[in-house]
Design a protein that fits this description.
With 714 residues, this protein is mainly beta. It folds into eight domains: 2-79, no CATH class; 100-162, Immunoglobulin-like (Sandwich); 170-240, Immunoglobulin-like (Sandwich); 242-387, no CATH class; 393-464, Cadherins (Immunoglobulin-like, Sandwich), CATH 2.60.40.60; 470-545, Immunoglobulins (Immunoglobulin-like), CATH 2.60.40; 549-633; 646-714, no CATH class. 4% of the residues lie in helices and 42% in strands. It has a five-stranded antiparallel sheet. The longest helix has 12 residues, at 574-585. Mean pLDDT is 82; it is low at 1-16, 64-69 and 704-714.
């Protein structure tokens, strides 16, 4: 059995209908009073689809008899009922001066505001769910209970609002980088939830956080309600941190080793970027001396443009301080220089206590130590970009003569895409010079600005001497038996690519010494060696001659005189006689340049003699000729088949060295020679003065001076 409850309000009739769900149709439904101030009474009936008028009575909850019956009328109608209550309504803050509560709830819902169970105001939300409830002023810390009831009678959960003192705004913590000028920032940026969205409110700084050191500080903002002249001061936590900062530390007075800030150069980005310089951290006398032991420059900054020649221009900003100078004086003098993106800042410090970008305030974790001396950074929209680092090294290169090199062969580049070795040499090496020569190479570094910086690096190229000396040969002609000349006489135009001073740096010696023992054209080997040990062997021809040697141009012809007997020629052809004559005359020929034996090219320019006599033969080789004198003697031996009559000579007394003795046979032409004057041994020689002739063959060989008669004293 379903049951519906309602609350009886006094003795008033309730004329609005009670509604229940259609699912209860044809079911027994009980309507019961749930007001505890009245005696419980209920009425049960069968629900149907039509509207029913239910009349029932209730008595006040009292034990007294004769209580008056109160009759209530209820119309019960079955519908699709809304049984979902609205969400708890939102509510604005309520201050001791507030006379309204505003918020949002379900459209058309009835809002009830109660304090300690007493309703102090109601309102109905508009079509957008907005509501405003007028309430009397409440005391501080009073608790307002707010509910929303929809048209179906569903009631939301409660929303409680405690009355608080009014807050004009809420602190909005801020974080800035070193050197920020807070006075240029609207103080509203430090607040949120400003009363009246700032309308008719005055907002101003009371104190501003110092931005010269990293850490957490505070900024005080005064907010005044101009309608009441009531003011509130709001303290806003303000954090100062490193930005794009070059931080430098000093050792402190008396060689103390704390990370004492002396300079923190921070980029402030924007349309017109600029730099600020602050101590950064305040550990150990930040505003004392930079370094009590340095009377010379301890820290400096320069700002420079990059020229069209890709070099650093003259500094347009230059600040420095000796170690004995105070930090405060240096920072005051530094100011706030304006810069352009693409400018270069030079940082100098003689100790490795300079750090790059965003270290922590205490430990400097993550900071990068810079090298002692000069360090350079490009100022970019993304911060500092280190350039011109000392991380490029040169290489000395050694090559052999004839090899080639590139500019990049002389440079070791780090893994940095912005670095490139220019193709052209600043000073090209001398590849033709053996030994060491200076090389200059350009390295370009691409900048974020689109420009680039160039640097020149110097290295050394050593060309190893691997080429042997050269020389032209100078063939020599020497006399047979002559002494051997120096090896250098066989050469001319001696040259070495490395040793200009040939006399002192080139050695020339025989490998196979020449010989002058016999005539001819031969080859001697001569070694030419330089200081590097490179050696050339030259083959040089040389000619050995005697009085029977003729030389013309590059032809040398040797010959001699010949004596032969007719018997040497017997039975030989003309060619064989010519060969015999060449052999006996020792005919030889050579090419004096190549040393080739040209004997077989020698020609006989004269007829070949075949009979006894004296001849002059001419031999020729190329452009040279030689004359050979040939004597052929008749040494024929005659045999007689019939001896002539005895030759009888008359007898005479030899009275002088010569005498003529008549003979009896006058047909013989005989001459007698007396040789007694030659010494003790003498002879009388009878000589046939005319040739003997073959009586039967007149063409036969004749003899002359071949028939001798000897008479000796022994």
């Amino acid at each position: 059995m379903a049951k519906m409850s309602y609350t009886l309000q006094s003795e008033k009739k309730i004329s609005d209908g009670l509604k229940t769900d259609k699912s209860l149709e044809n079911s027994n439904v009980t309507i019961a009073n749930d007001d505890t101030s009245w005696k419980h009474y209920s009425k049960t009936f069968v629900a149907n689809s039509s509207t029913q008028n239910i009349i029932f009575g209730q008595f006040p909850n009292s034990t007294d008899a004769g209580q008056q019956l109160v009759t209530q009328y209820k119309n019960l109608q079955l519908i699709d009922a809304d049984q979902t209550p609205p969400d708890a309504p939102t509510a604005s803050k309520v201050y001791p001066t507030s006379t309204t509560v505003t918020g949002k709830t379900e459209a058309g819902a009835k809002i009830s505001v109660k304090v300690n169970g007493t309703e102090i105001g109601t309102s109905t939300a508009n079509a957008y769910g907005d509501y405003t409830v007028t309430i009397p002023v409440q005391v501080k810390d009073a608790v307002l209970t707010i509910t929303a009831q929809d048209a179906a009678g569903n009631i939301s959960d409660t929303t409680q609002v405690t009355v608080k003192e009014e807050v004009f705004a809420v602190a909005k913590p801020q974080t800035f980088i070193l050197g920020t000028d807070i006075s240029t920032i609207n103080p509203k940026e430090f607040l949120t939830e400003i009363k009246n969205n700032g309308t008719n409110m005055k907002i101003e700084y009371v104190t501003k956080a110092a931005t010269d050191q990293v850490g957490i500080s505070s900024t005080s903002i005064k907010v005044t309600d101009l309608s009441t002249q009531i003011a509130q001061t709001i303290v806003v936590p303000t954090t100062i941190q490193f930005g794009d900062t070059l931080f430098s530390a000093g050792l402190g007075i008396g060689s103390s080793s704390g990370n004492r800030g002396i300079s923190a150069v921070t980029i402030h980005h924007g349309e017109h970027p600029y730099l600020t310089n602050t101590p950064g951290i305040d550990t150990e006398y930040a505003y004392g001396q930079m370094h009590s032991d340095y009377s010379t420059t301890y820290y400096s900054n320069k700002l420079m443009k990059v020229t069209d020649e890709h070099e650093l221009g003259a500094a347009y900003f230059d600040k420095s301080s000796a170690g004995t100078g105070t930090v405060s004086d240096y920072l005051t003098a530094y100011g706030q220089p304006s810069v352009d993106y693409g400018d270069i800042i030079e940082v100098y410090q003689p100790e490795t206590r300079t750090f790059l970008t965003k270290p922590t305030a205490t430990t400097l974790d993550g900071a990068e130590n810079l090298k002692v001396g000069y360090n350079y950074f490009e100022i970019t929209p993304n911060g500092y970009k280190q350039v011109l680092q000392n991380n490029i090294t040169t290489k000395n290169v050694t090559i052999n003569t004839g090899d080639t090199v590139k500019a990049s062969d002389f440079i070791n580049l780090p893994a940095d895409a912005s670095l490139k070795v220019a193709d052209a040499f600043v000073q090209a090496p001398n590849l033709s010079k053996v030994g060491a020569s200076t090389v200059q190479v350009e390295v370009d570094q691409q900048l974020n600005s689109g420009k680039y910086l160039k640097r020149t690096f110097t290295s050394t190229l050593t060309v190893k001497d691997t080429i042997a000396p050269t020389a032209d040969v100078k063939p020599q002609t020497l006399d047979k038996g002559a002494s051997i000349p120096a090896a250098s006489t066989f050469l001319t135009n001696v040259h070495d690519n490395a040793d200009a001073d040939v006399a002192n740096n080139i050695s020339i010696s025989y490998v196979t010494p020449p010989t002058t023992a016999t005539i001819g054209v031969r080859t001697t080997q001569i070694a030419i060696q330089d200081k590097a040990g490179n050696k050339t062997i030259k083959d040089v021809t040389y000619s050995i001659k005697d009085e029977n040697t003729n030389i013309q141009d590059n032809y040398m012809l040797h010959n001699g005189d010949v004596q032969l007997n007719t018997s040497d020629l017997e039975g030989k052809t003309s060619d064989q006689v010519a060969s015999l004559l060449r052999q006996q005359a020792k005919i030889q020929g050579w090419d004096t340049l190549s040393g080739a034996d040209l004997t077989d090219q020698i020609t006989l320019e004269s007829p070949v003699p075949t009979t006894s006599g004296t001849y002059t033969l001419i031999y020729k080789l190329g452009t040279v000729t030689a004359v050979s004198r040939v004597e052929i003697k008749d040494n024929t031996t005659f045999g007689f088949t019939k001896a002539p009559s005895a030759l009888e000579f008359n007898t005479t007394e030899i009275k002088s060295s010569e005498a003529t003795i008549d003979r009896e046979e006058t047909g013989w032409n005989i001459g007698v020679t007396d040789a007694r004057n030659n010494g003790d041994k003498w002879a009388v020689t009878a000589t046939v003065n005319g040739p003997l002739e073959n009586m039967t063959d007149p063409t036969a060989k004749k003899t002359n001076e071949r028939f001798h008669i000897y008479k000796r004293n022994n």
